[in-house]
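=== Structure Prediction Worksheet ===
Name of assembly: unnamed complex
Input type: mixed (protein and possibly other molecules)
Chain count: two
Listed entries:
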Amino acid sequence: MTFEEKYSQYKSAFEKRLSEFCNNITCKPDILAESMKYSLNLGGKRIRPVLMYAVSNVLGLDEGKIENFALALELIHTYSLIHDDLPEMDNDDFRRGKPSNHKVFGQGNAVLAGDALLNTAYSLLIDECRNGGEYVSAAKNICDCAGIYGMIAGQSADLTHENDEDPDENTLDFIYENKTAKLVLAAVLTPSILCCGKYFSELKVFGRETGILFQLTDDILDVEGNFDVLGKSIGKDKAEGKYTCVKLYGIEKSKVKADVIADKCTRVLEGIKGDTRFLKELTNFIRQRIY
Amino acid sequence: MTFEEKYSQYKSAFEKRLSEFCNNITCKPDILAESMKYSLNLGGKRIRPVLMYAVSNVLGLDEGKIENFALALELIHTYSLIHDDLPEMDNDDFRRGKPSNHKVFGQGNAVLAGDALLNTAYSLLIDECRNGGEYVSAAKNICDCAGIYGMIAGQSADLTHENDEDPDENTLDFIYENKTAKLVLAAVLTPSILCCGKYFSELKVFGRETGILFQLTDDILDVEGNFDVLGKSIGKDKAEGKYTCVKLYGIEKSKVKADVIADKCTRVLEGIKGDTRFLKELTNFIRQRIY
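=== Predicted Assembly ===
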């Protein structure tokens, strides 16, 4: 099976569960359910669920055990995009080539759609807690990665340091690590935690670096990408004075950094016994991505 | 001990735990921690925690078992106020006599402060899930009450039906039940769930009706209250075309309704063996409140 076929297989498995889940959202008023589903169904690469499925496969963990964790994580990711796109945050009118949630449903409803997705993610995770201690640990890990010492801290730093005149490496590392890498880390560590910590330290490095690589390439694409392919506005980082690798090091050095990190991701996988080919190819896919 | 002394005792016990919790918030950047603590420390009646402590006392449940549930619930309530006060929602510049979160920290940070409180509430609740099945059930109940079939649905309906020309009773009931009563219900049911459902059906009626009574008196105070005592703007419901009891029935009939509901709250407590005097007095306090 080629990399693309395998990717598509994981993505389809996840989207089947997502679609089932969406069909069961029956809350009122209609706009609440619609606004949640709108953003969940905008598509996207589903990189976090795909990573979770792929790592489970390497560890020999049944997909049924992680599907609700993958779903919860995608809900958390989606809520963060909705709130991030709000005018008072990143002020993005487009997401995945379509109007952002608040452009379709209005700002107030977009705030609530985000809240709704976050709350529903925890409804799924608390249900999983009935299955035993390792499930509670996996839920807690996702919660920590998404929270005030994780993604939210990264978003807050991102907002706070907009237009800093004197950007420094530590702040950039903090933003990359928390805003983006933590949720990718959560995706990779969930199967390990459910397997009593199997290859935990290797996967911790792999998850963190893959997350950072993802943000690095995101920032490079904000300079060199194409709106039609990327589905979101280009050049916004510079216009808004965002703290990015490109701002700190320039585009060429950023690309070198991305290569170094991609290499680190690949190497750490050598320590894992099992078929890690797909994960290596995924690293390469992220490094080369144009969307 | 008088009602006021008892109330103050429960409130102090809760605020001791809250203060401990706030001291342990060390997240960066500083504005994230500060904005969370600002809204948590605005004071207020702490009616949900007080109810949870009081019901625990009636059921003979140790306070130590519910203190983190009470904390999580107050975090959820506080996040909902921060998001609700945003210009795109209720657009309130004041909360408890002080500037709203977004007036102090800006809209973007207020969105994140709310997200942070919601996520941290679930961090507390997932930790509790380690203590056994009834703890998972209690966490799930709070999550359901706060979620898309609970408080968020109520907020969404409140927003959707603003300025409806032809208000109807069903919609008003839906808003009251979900926007306000569900979190009050969660406070009252948590101790019962931790006691294997002790007096569940009586407490379910008591919690729901107390919550509705609370919203009814809130709407009456929006007409007849005093800014200095209440700490928030007066007359906003009418100005914003809010769906309230007063809009539907007028102020006098609303007061009669409040009396009927307060009576229902008191009567259902008769079915509970134990000292329910404080809960009855609390119902009376809510009925008569001026803030």
